[in-house]
Design a protein that fits this description.
Blueprint lengths: L2 E4 L5 H15 L1 E6 L2 H18 L6 E12 L2 E12 L2
Parallel strand pairs: 1-2
Antiparallel strand pairs: 2-4, 3-4
Helix pairs in contact: 1-2
Amino acid sequence: MEVLKVSAKSNAKSLAGAIAALMRQQGSAEMQAVGAAAVNQAVKAIAIARGYVAPNGIDLVMIPAFSEITIDGEERTAIKFSVGKRR
């Protein structure tokens, strides 16, 4: 599964479009964000994406979790967002 990497400078609407496309194609999406500003953009994008896929009868749910990643040889803690369809 492709992991969308979110930064503080990510455009929430563009990210929402990517989430909506993955939801329609694969039925799920995954994102990683490091830092408060990046997490903020990710959460906004998920909220926007809910509106994009709702006309298709898809109700999104999000499960956040911690994830350890390596950036430039340094261990960092990221927030991983697993997005799927409500059952």
